[in-house]
Amino acid sequence: MIILKITPGLRIRPRLLAALACFILESSQAQPITPTATNEPTTVIAPSLAGDSIVLPTGFNDPIEPFNRAMWGFNQGFATWVVRPASKTYRRVVFKPVRTGIGNMGKNLTFPGKLLNNMLQGKWAGMGQETERCICNTVLGVGGFFDLATQWGIPRSDASFGQTFTKWGWKPGSYLMLPVFGPSDVRDGTGLVGDAAANPMTYFFPFSWISPGVRANDFTDTVEGSVRFSQAEPDSYSLLQYAWSFAHQNRKADMRVIGEQDEASLETLQSALFTYQDAEFPARGKTRSVLIPATGKKLEFTFWLQPGHAPVVYLVPGFGAHRLAGNELGLAELLYKNGFSAVTLSSTFHPEFMEHASTSDLPSYPPADVRDLHVALTAIDRRLETKYRDRLGSRVIMGYSMGGFQSLFLAAQAATNDAPLVKFERYVAIDSPIDLRYGVTNLDRFYQAPLVWPPEERNANIQNMLLKVVAVSEQSPQPGAVLPFNAVESKFLISMALRLTLRDVIFSSQLRHNQGVLKQPLEKSRRRAAYEEIMQYSFRDYIDKFATPYNKTKDIDLKDPVTLRIWRGRRRHSLPRR
User: Which helix (H) or strand (E) holds 100?
Assistant: First the structure.
């Protein structure tokens, strides 16, 4: 008997503010920014704006993208295979208060460089503040181990050679991915050399190892998140490049909310704040892979098994989400704390699934996509059954957003499914879309929301909106926090996050099966031009220009009434319930 539970109040979406802070990748060419932003929303789009397009900020100039991507690949490998294993041992031996104290001491040792750069920039108050902080922390804070200056409200005036060069008028130049240090540019990369030269410890062995040691100490607390980010994002380089280049402008956002807010879209943004609570929970999961016979490739999955016999919940994520995304891990942790075992896999619209487990080059037809999902779940279940038979109880499938739709689709087929595929005793759908085409139409409409702003203010408003996202993400808001976005901003941010997912879907699919729609060349090492073109395609364009022609080659006509009912999810009416 199928037990169907739908929870309409919880809106779970992948790509949280961390991803939204990386938002709108390199798309249109930026236009001059007006000095002020009113953010005043109106209610009607003027007919003259109907043909306008949204102009988005661009990232740093990246002429050496292949080199930078190769260097980012090195950094990913170094963090994953060297720093991460070492950090696990280090965190067990060195407790958090000690690690924090070591980090404080490292910051205290950078006083000479901060003093010098405050002087070079003419920031006399900053010189005094940093001197006061250094004396306070060195004398009373046990050599800087305790940051008493911050507790006592003494302002921090960080200054570096990169900032000094900026003050002197040196333009940043091209984007530059540095080994170990990460994203930078030509100006700030040169500034790092100056910062090292201004540190007295650089000249005295073995004290010259103190700065690298402190940097490694600090990285042990962030490496897990960094590795998961690089694993979960289809193109973590592009997201990081854009987020860094935008935040690097060091501009202040106007945090006012001017105009009405939209409760529904704000709930969706707030749901992005839902994630795991225990920082060590993701690391306790085990990642394995299964061979998918139809593709001949291996698909990875991650699981957390209870020590004894317990029900197993297979989590199917939202549109384009990865198995290690924040929402996915938050649900897995919640289930595990309540006595369930949890298994996660990536969305059928994520390149990890598309390139390893999908029998279609282009995910677009629910029966085919759900069949591929069911086959993958069966392979995973058999792998777990082989090794952990005594610990596996009843099987449950839980999906949210698009994953909820797919769970319902599986439930509708359960009564007539005679294939040797895994059977589920319960089907749980969280905030499942009712009509996919209706959802697609709304997403495209949300993307056009900024067109209500006057053209002369629109670019500045979009810039300020993205600055607000960066500011909010830096505050680490908790679920339920009040977000400073009006109706236009919240709707646009939702559609923008999902447009990024669509970009990854299109790029991955066309890289494997180029339909000839895109004009720009498709290269893994040089993607910017292709991304700019892809970002011009709406969800409706994806259906009309990519999905429909592809499905016709498979004798699937999305305009056929019967097929259309399936595509829209009308088979939900056949669900047995209790």
Answer: helix 96-109
